[in-house]
Inverse folding.
């Protein structure tokens, strides 16, 4: 039996990397403020600050300490409070919605927001064909710009991480036994606990954090490989994929039936066609029974088609969640199962495959080169 390990953004966060979308949006807003302070104007496709209507002398804006403070400053500027001499215009509903998510939920999924806005435009009965096309083109340009800025931000992060001790501990987690009592969906029960025959790391991150562990993994299980399914920031042969991947959604059929390629431009399937990564994943899942490990992946809808294909595959026999434990002692195990349920059409199969919390573990957090 093999093991398929899904690596999501929570894995990078466990290494104290600031890879949340909220971290990225703070980086973007911080640069907007700094450009305004330097030049008296900052303009792009999402937001403009200053300009010809600004009174002189211009008001200086202190660089905010975090994204919520930055949003508060923008709000004050718009209302004319404290920063009355600065003109600001938000050009992007995608940016506005994403910033609102941070304030209201302390969390944001830009890809999901993109898809919701796209379907909102499509379903607006007051949009004629010309207006519809114009709005979709504009939304796609905004996501192109965000994708460009996201790559720019990720290149600024410090990826110098982990000592030999943490490498050993995490590597052992990857290579631990497949326990027979965690696999109940097979008609013929496993005879004994055993090491996985092969490992496949399905890395959903754009970073190479995972690569720090592969040398140690190879010492334990020879057959293993990494598929960076969403691409890598500094690899032109594996360009990053940034968009939405839920072709199961009922609205997706509407997009296809409109017969306009622009409406499908940021659907993930068309990014997967650019490399052999997805075919490698399919070959692995078709080859032999496998167990799934989930480390740091939110299991949100933006990857629904792929996750459905994995979870409901006949060869998928067991799914183990490494949940995030919060500082107050609570965790996100139940929340994670809620998200995963949306990827199962067969709920009986879901109940058989997902390993109960009593047999699951928290996701290790690396702090000051120690595992906690």
């Amino acid at each position: 039996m093999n093991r398929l390990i899904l690596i999501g953004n929570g894995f990078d966060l466990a290494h104290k990397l600031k890879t949340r979308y909220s971290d990225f949006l703070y980086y973007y807003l911080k640069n907007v403020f700094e450009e305004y302070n330097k030049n008296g104007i900052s303009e792009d496709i999402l937001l403009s600050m200053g300009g010809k209507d600004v009174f002189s002398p211009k008001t200086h804006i202190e660089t905010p300490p975090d994204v919520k403070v930055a949003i508060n400053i923008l709000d004050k500027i718009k209302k004319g409070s404290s920063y009355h001499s600065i003109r600001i215009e938000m050009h992007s509903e995608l940016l506005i919605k994403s910033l609102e998510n941070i304030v209201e939920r302390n969390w944001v999924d830009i890809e999901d927001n993109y898809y919701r806005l796209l379907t909102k435009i499509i379903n607006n009965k007051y949009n004629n064909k010309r207006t519809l096309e114009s709005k979709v083109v504009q939304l796609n340009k905004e996501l192109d710009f965000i994708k460009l800025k996201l790559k720019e931000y990720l290149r600024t992060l410090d990826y110098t991480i982990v000592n030999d001790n943490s490498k050993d501990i995490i590597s052992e987690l990857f290579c631990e036994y497949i326990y027979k009592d965690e696999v109940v969906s097979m008609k013929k029960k496993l005879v004994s606990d055993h090491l996985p025959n092969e490992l496949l790391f399905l890395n959903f991150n754009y970073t190479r954090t995972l690569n720090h562990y592969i040398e140690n993994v190879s010492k334990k299980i020879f057959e293993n490989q990494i598929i960076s399914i969403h691409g890598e920031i500094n690899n032109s042969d594996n360009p990053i994929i940034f968009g939405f991947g839920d072709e199961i959604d009922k609205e997706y059929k509407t997009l296809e039936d409109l017969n306009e390629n622009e409406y499908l431009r940021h659907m993930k399937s068309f990014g997967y066609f650019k490399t052999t990564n997805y075919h490698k994943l399919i070959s692995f899942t078709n080859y032999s029974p496998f167990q799934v490990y989930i480390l740091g992946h939110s299991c949100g809808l933006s990857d629904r088609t792929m996750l459905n294909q994995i979870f409901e595959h006949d060869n998928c026999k067991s799914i183990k969640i490494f949940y995030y434990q919060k500082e107050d002692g609570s965790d996100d195990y139940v929340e994670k199962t809620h998200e995963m349920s949306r990827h199962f059409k067969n709920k009986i199969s879901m109940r058989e495959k997902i390993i109960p919390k009593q047999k699951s573990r928290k996701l290790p957090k690396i702090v000051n080169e120690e595992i906690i």
About this structure: The CA atoms of residues 224 and 317 lie 19 Å apart. The chain is about 40% helix and 10% strand.
